[in-house]
Amino acid sequence: MLIIGHQTVAGLLEGREKEVVDLVADAYRRHDEGRTSLPHSVFLRFPDRPRDRIIGLPGYLGGSAEGGEDDIAGMKWIASFPGNIASGVQRASAAILLNNLRNGQPEALIEGSLISAQRTAASAAVGARMLLGGRRPSGVTLIGCGVINREVLRFLAVEHPALDQLTVYDTDPERARRFTQDNARLLPSATVRHCATLDEALAAHDLVSIATTAATPYATLDACPPGTVVLHVSLRDLTARAVLGAHNVVDDPDHVCRENTSVHLAELATGSREFIDASIGALLRGTAKLDPHPGKPLVYSPFGLGVLDLALARFVRDRARAGGLGSEVTDFLPAPAA
């Protein structure tokens, strides 16, 4: 069993944003081609602590079309405890277990919080690329100033190096101030603006990333400029009306229409999924196209497919093995039978 800790993972992913985006886009294509097995994620909740949860995401990502031996199976086990933030502990913690596909045995245990954050951010960057359709965004607005939007900003800065306007909004103004102070290096030439209200922030630019801990919808998109691309990463911020008034792209309709996401609530309100225009994998493969109305926002709502975590975990595992990194535990499994 190879065990890879957080610092090693961080070192292996540093400066690899373009490769991570390519891995995520490739995983989406494979999923759209039917080369994955992806059961619904399992939500472990606690009766007396409604904000806390632990989610299990099992999955299998099939090999490349060229026939390479790069298929992978495993599971991410990720906890979200929003109260951690007040005590200086990260909200999310995760572990990813990879299995050997020859014999099914577990072969790698990887600290997964950064992998999870970066695959989410890379997914957002892929969504922005496809929904912007070649447009240069006027700037980017971040709603929620936590780890996920930090990584979204990192990946958008690589995808759109000409970004020179950054607007932020958080219900805690001090957290927003610390966020821009700590992450100014990601967009060193950008003009930074702090907003006092949500609508002021939504009106600032035609590219918005929403990554909060909201459990129930609170936001409309009435203040957005026409054609705004909204990366709805946290999934539960937008009202059903806002979703139904937009063009909608998701990663997988069966996965995202669950667990009271905004897309799920819109489905319950209408009794159908006809408001979903396309999946991101189909857009990437060219089997679907968007023909957006110029006045409507475009909303990307990625549920977060476990195969993205597996793609990045495989990348980390292979690089760790090549560099002799991580800790090998030789007596983790039972000894072979005589």
Report on the structure:
The chain is of the alpha/beta class. The chain contains 11 helices and 16 strands. It has helices spanning 6-13, 17-32, 113-132, 147-159, 173-183, 198-202, 240-244, 253-256, 262-270, 280-285, 306-322, and strands at residues 2-4, 36-37, 42-46, 49-61, 72-80, 92-99, 106-111, 140-143, 165-169, 191-194, 207-210, 229-232, 247-250, 276-279, 298-301, 327-328. Strands 1, 2, 3, 4, 5, 6, 7 and 16 form an 8-stranded mixed sheet that branches. It has an 8-stranded parallel sheet with strand order 10-9-8-11-12-15-13-14. Helix 4 links the parallel strand 8 and strand 9 (165-169).
Task: Report a brief summary of the structure.
The chain is an alpha/beta fold.
Structural class determined from secondary elements: alpha/beta
Which outline best applies?
A: globular
Count of helical segments? Answer: 11
Query: What's the total number of strands?
Result: 16
**What is the distance, rounded to the nearest whole angstrom, between the alpha carbons of the first and last residues?**
21 Å
* Percent of residues in β-strands: 15-25%
Query: How much helix is in the residues?
Result: 25-40%
**Rg measurement, Å:** 20 Å
> What's the overall average pLDDT, rounded?
94
Helix and strand topology:
Layout: E1 2-4, H1 6-13, H2 17-32, E2 36-37, E3 42-46, E4 49-61, E5 72-80, E6 92-99, E7 106-111, H3 113-132, E8 140-143, H4 147-159, E9 165-169, H5 173-183, E10 191-194, H6 198-202, E11 207-210, E12 229-232, H7 240-244, E13 247-250, H8 253-256, H9 262-270, E14 276-279, H10 280-285, E15 298-301, H11 306-322, E16 327-328
Parallel strand pairs: 1-7, 8-9, 8-11, 9-10, 11-12, 12-15, 13-14, 13-15
Antiparallel strand pairs: 1-16, 2-4, 3-4, 4-5, 5-6, 6-7
Protein name: 2,3-diaminopropionate biosynthesis protein SbnB
Organism: Streptomyces albiflavescens
GO molecular function, one term: oxidoreductase activity, acting on the CH-NH2 group of donors, NAD or NADP as acceptor
